[in-house]
Amino acid sequence: MGADLELVVGGRPIRFPAVWLRDNCPCPDCLAPGTGQKLKDITDIPNGLAITRTEDAGESVLVTFAPDQHRSAFPRAWLEDHALGDGADGDGRTEDDKELWLPPDLAELPAMSWLSYLAGGKAEALEAVLRVGFVLLSGLSAVPGRVLEVAASFGYVRETNYGRLFDVRVEPAPGNLAFTSRAIRPHTDNPYRDPAPTVQLLHCLRAAGEGGDTGLVDGFAAAADFRAADPESFGTLARTPVSFGYVDKETELRASLPLIQLSPSGRVRGVRFNNRSMRPLRRPYAEVTAFYAAYRRWAELLAQPGRQLTVRLAAGDCLVFDNTRVLHARTAFSMSPRSPGRHLQGCYADLDGLASTLAVLTREEGS
Amino acid sequence: MGADLELVVGGRPIRFPAVWLRDNCPCPDCLAPGTGQKLKDITDIPNGLAITRTEDAGESVLVTFAPDQHRSAFPRAWLEDHALGDGADGDGRTEDDKELWLPPDLAELPAMSWLSYLAGGKAEALEAVLRVGFVLLSGLSAVPGRVLEVAASFGYVRETNYGRLFDVRVEPAPGNLAFTSRAIRPHTDNPYRDPAPTVQLLHCLRAAGEGGDTGLVDGFAAAADFRAADPESFGTLARTPVSFGYVDKETELRASLPLIQLSPSGRVRGVRFNNRSMRPLRRPYAEVTAFYAAYRRWAELLAQPGRQLTVRLAAGDCLVFDNTRVLHARTAFSMSPRSPGRHLQGCYADLDGLASTLAVLTREEGS
């Protein structure tokens, strides 16, 4: 009788606590057969569990628990696949599951024609968004509203006060600098929202005559370099909540979160960067001065020209990118009667739906 | 010449670093007049700023900066309102900005008729969602789809794989225990999503003949009590990422985040709790055993009967609640040819849009 189950797999002992086993019991009383959902709460499981008996049943291990004599059959392969401590239970959202890049690392851009995407390339494109942070789809028709179809092909549009989609072009009375012809430096969108949209799409309906190039920066690669170069400043930014705000006639948004967001184990899980909408910091004096020193160094690092990948969107191109990771920018563009300026349509979506679509596609391909 | 501006307000000195002032300069070169957005990045501001001159200009303080002789006029009232260190720059999302409750604390339920909501009560209802965690709207017509109108009245529907809205009723082949007549203990929805929806709406089209009562638990109050009673277990749950998953034919979602989510300063900002969809923990052995001890204590605390507020939804009632904070539950219900069982329609939305709507309503009332 003991608190653990120990198996030896390939000469290596692997150990499972009784409570872990019981909470993951696959019998139909514990796990709903149709849904795979657990039928027991942790409080339904007796306290002070012990294993009174283990039996080898070929493919399975039979475990009997005290005090209630519940018996569970664990497939041996499942136990081997679920060894503790291997860290394989993440959701792929931190820097550890990404391919960090500087532009020279991307020998080939993650890019694909819309036709290829529709003809079996979707999984490869979505995988690029999760791994590299973006994919460039080309050859869509330059028709208003098309961007919503791209979003619907892998997930769900996140509607906001900007609508289901928004036009990025010069407006006579812009509520946002995006709607001018000015250059915009690398930033993430909507840091004044919580939850901020985690995926952004930009579909080019009309390229600028001159200028209006899109720049992309891998914020996770930058954060990893920042941590290596200046761990103290990195820590300051990960610890300091910063308020972002957006106000117009019908909207008043505010969110207060750090510029660099970490997982509980200190790995980078998100960046927010957008000086335009940063609100006055109200932390104590010493924190404010430390923050500004760190913030300047971080901004300088993000602005290094060698970090920025330049992509010129042509009419019909659609960029899909991870807004928790990849900063986007644009150069200024000119307008004249002959070149009426750049016109993009954008919308937001979320990474969880995108990853789900990829997982299902991969499952189907694998079966 | 100095690095700071110091003002004396009501006998109390308040101090602002030069870089903070300059980053918040309200002149039209620094702040776009139409949008209130900043036109300068931090890297546009000279390094090693100093204040060479301050002048009293009645309502304003004029500040001249070295090395570039930029001059800024700061309204004195604005400076007084933005004193550092007062912590007034949050977004209202942590426990500090909530009214934590046990059921006896709620002498009156936050509740309102739909007519009152439409006739000027909306701000009060939305404020209750942010402060108490929920509001009960009554007297809506029990018409399918109505829940989407309620969501649209304060924000944007978060579409998911369950659709823009979903039916909660007994289904012949349920993909989720929600779609059975079983009791469901207090939980938050969609912990397998990141971002998880932050607002949930449940609109009752048909009450159960017997049972099917809704229970609500203030997860932030519970977390605060848990921290006071067992800080070590609280810390364990705040530090341990837990994977949740949901799988059906078209969906495969996974998110890995702690059960208790903290702000950088350690204040509770979110809870996730849903044993049904928790996936096997893969942390190292010692972490797993510590986690299970803490998890059981947390589950026991959440299950204390005294924490659960019982609400019986009648046809036409719509409950709107904060899914980052309030756990919901339901009792089992009976079905018979005479009582066909409970039928709710639900949808998701987000707190940021809700808070924006409230801010604009309050602004309009105040002006």
Strand content of chain A: 25-35%
Q: Would you tell me the structural class of the helices and strands of chain A? A: alpha+beta
Radius of gyration of chain A in whole Å, from Cα? 25 Å
Distance between the termini of chain A: 41 Å
Give the tally of β-strands of chain A.
Answer: 19
For the report, how would you describe the main beta sheet of chain A?
6 strands, mixed
Poorly predicted regions of chain A are none
Q: Helicity of chain A, in percent?
A: 10-25%
Please give the order of strands in the largest beta sheet of chain A. Answer: 6-7-17-10-19-8
How would you state the average pLDDT of chain A, rounded? 93
- Reading the helices and strands of chain A in chain order gives EEHEEEHEHEHEEEEHHEEEEHEEEEH
Largest interface, with Cβ-Cβ < 8 Å? A-B, 94 and 94 residues
Quaternary organization: homodimer
How many H/I helical runs of chain A?
Answer: 8
Shape descriptor of chain A reads elongated
